[in-house]
Write a structure and sequence with these properties.
The structure is a homodimer. The first copy, chain A, is α/β, with parallel strands linked by helices. Helix content of chain A is 37%, strand content 25%. Chain A contains eleven helices and 13 strands. In chain A, the strands form two sheets. In chain A, strands 5-4-1-8-9-10-11-12-13 form a nine-stranded mixed sheet, sandwiched between helices.
């Protein structure tokens, strides 16, 4: 089944303690779509300026990603982010951010997107996420990401959105903020009570929690010794999850658990290179091999 | 098989964001021994002052722990630690520490301890750990804990100790410090190259890594919603690991993995109360139930 993925397509400049990459392809919709494309057809919704390099368009197209929802704004510049990771690679500082064409992004979905069954709402204001959702006819599964900015400034709109979601993705500090509880297990349970059918709390290299009607599920990160650049880990995690869910029609709960394991593995591949460098080299076969290796690593 | 456990027996005062406990039983040898006592016989080595409350002696004795190696120093005062946990319960500040009788602790093992097969060397200077080890006749398995202080001030002595160990336990920041590598997976591999047969990196609520000749094994923490006091988590984790290993004679590697799972579960019970409060209420049956629940939580 097909996925509509709404988010950002960006140009990133990244510094890590050992290396850097300048003006490379980034953005939540980019990472999500590329990761999900290993499992199913993805229809992207985003905006770029006319400075956006054609080679990036080609790269996404080669993965079979439908770009008819990618608006190229004439005379506009693409969303740009520059950041620097700390020594531990878990925290980062934003050094520069230019919203550019993203500032007034208000997507209108192409007609053939509206009846598609799976929807990913990348991190953006809950109002924008709601407007996208309103354009979908009868989505079977909606997964949304959010961030501290919206929890702090648009809590009411976010609370209105939550019951319309199947799954909410957020990181550990965001979960504490939204639930107003320092204990992540309690926080996850509380957030689920706010409406989404399931909640996934991302803990970066430490893995993730899933809270669903079947209880708590917990997975460590895949332990890679080769962390080059953590950018995009969360969005490719989401892409692996929803991509797998869209491709597997077996009954829950095993399906959702397997999806999170796939997301974990794809995220671990993403961080082994800058931008999409490492994902571009991978194959469904490598993903399956790493999944089995991962399963062995956590079995006692 | 029996375990010799060398470490501290302490009086702790603990403040958390929501509660506090004053002058309660603590110490590495205490938590280790109590946790291991669910699996096997433990012979404790430690020192206290004659201010040490008799009720604590009774408590340990009731678990069948051999206290003939517990020196009660006349006119001395017991090691005292006072600390306060931050809101996230992962970090803490030491507010007060009085080494008291611990300052010149130089244990002489009772004769019947010396031929026992399993040894736990709780966190102390590598010189002291070495002197204990020198008193053992032919230990089959030695597990040691260490800390940043010894890595920074007695690195050479620690490096001399490592090849004599089967297992080294240390936390994430200590592993980074010892290996001089920010990536924990690489750090674990490097530390194993320094001599111990296996290395366990503790990540608090995020679980642990095992590095052995069978590769990397990774387990998340057991997700408990009831974290009351994290004190003793690491030492009861160690007690669960070595206790289980001493009670199971099946071949590796499954044995070491199961041991770490038991350690994880016991640590999660420890943190649900102050001091030994929660461990005192638990049973081997509860431990087994939680282990199975934990296994389900990480299976995909």
């Amino acid at each position: 089944m097909s996925i509509v993925a709404v988010g950002t397509v960006a140009i990133d400049s990244i510094e890590t303690p050992t290396a850097s990459a300048h003006h490379v392809l980034g953005g939540s919709a980019t990472y999500f779509s590329y990761a999900a494309s290993f499992f199913t057809k993805v229809h992207l919704v985003a905006v770029v300026g006319d400075d956006f390099p054609m080679q990036h368009i080609d790269l996404l197209r080669q993965r079979g990603i439908d770009l008819s929802g990618l608006e190229v704004r004439r005379g506009g510049r693409t969303f740009y982010w520059r950041g620097r990771y700390h020594a531990d690679m878990n925290n980062r500082d934003t050094l520069e951010v230019h919203l550019n064409v993203l500032a007034d992004f208000n997507p209108t979905l192409p007609g053939h997107y509206r009846e598609l069954p799976y929807v990913f709402l990348g991190n953006s204001s809950p109002q924008l996420q709601m407007r996208v959702l309103d354009q979908m006819v009868r989505p079977q599964m909606v997964l949304a990401d959010t961030m501290n900015l919206w929890i702090e400034t648009q809590r009411d709109a976010l609370l209105e959105l939550l019951p319309r979601l199947d799954g909410l993705l957020l990181n550990d500090s965001e979960a504490r903020l939204l639930a107003e509880d320092e204990n992540l297990v309690r926080a996850g349970m509380k957030i689920r009570d706010l409406g989404p059918k399931f909640v996934i709390i991302k803990k970066g290299e430490h893995g993730s929690f899933l809270f669903s009607r079947d209880g708590v599920f917990v997975l460590p990160g895949y332990p890679t010794p080769d962390v080059v650049d953590p950018t995009g880990a969360g969005d490719s995690f989401a892409g692996g999850i929803l991509g797998y869910l869209a491709s597997d029609t077996s009954p829950p709960p095993g399906r959702l658990r397997r999806a999170i394991a796939y997301g974990t593995v794809i995220a671990s591949i993403t961080v082994e290179g800058f931008s999409l460098d490492r994902l571009r080299q991978t194959t469904r076969e490598e993903i399956e091999r790493r999944l089995e290796e991962y399963r062995r690593m956590i079995t006692f």
